[in-house]
Write a structure and sequence with these properties.
The protein is built from 5 helices and no strands. By secondary structure, the chain is mainly α. The protein has 2 domains: 40 residues; 54 residues, no CATH class.
Length: 105
């Protein structure tokens, strides 16, 4: 179903002032549309922001390969020189990353 200019402006204004999933839900109820329809329209308008996944600890997830890459960079060696290190527990790799001087943001 098409959205007219007035409804589109309302959606964009409301979503940009509060870009959350709750806002999408409210718009869906208010406009009697599905959340997928709302997300699709906001995406076409260029304003929709996907939710950023966070781990259980609230951190942005990082893969073991990324951790090994950071460790290799900090040690000044090639990743190939650390073959098999990615099989280590993630907690151990995080400790090694910090110990070798990695600065994550």
């Amino acid at each position: 179903m098409n959205y007219n200019l007035e409804v589109t402006e309302l959606m964009v204004t409301k979503y940009t002032s509060s870009p959350t999933n709750d806002t999408v839900q409210e718009l869906a109820v208010q406009l009697n549309k599905s959340t997928k329809s709302i997300i699709g329209k906001l995406s076409r308008e260029g304003v929709y922001q996907r939710a950023v996944y966070k781990s259980k600890t609230g951190e942005t997830p990082i893969t073991k390969v990324e951790l090994v890459s950071n460790i290799a960079e900090n040690l000044g060696v090639e990743m190939e020189d650390l073959v098999g290190l990615d099989k280590s527990p993630k907690a151990t790799l995080k400790v090694m990353e910090v110990a070798t001087g990695a600065m994550r943001t």
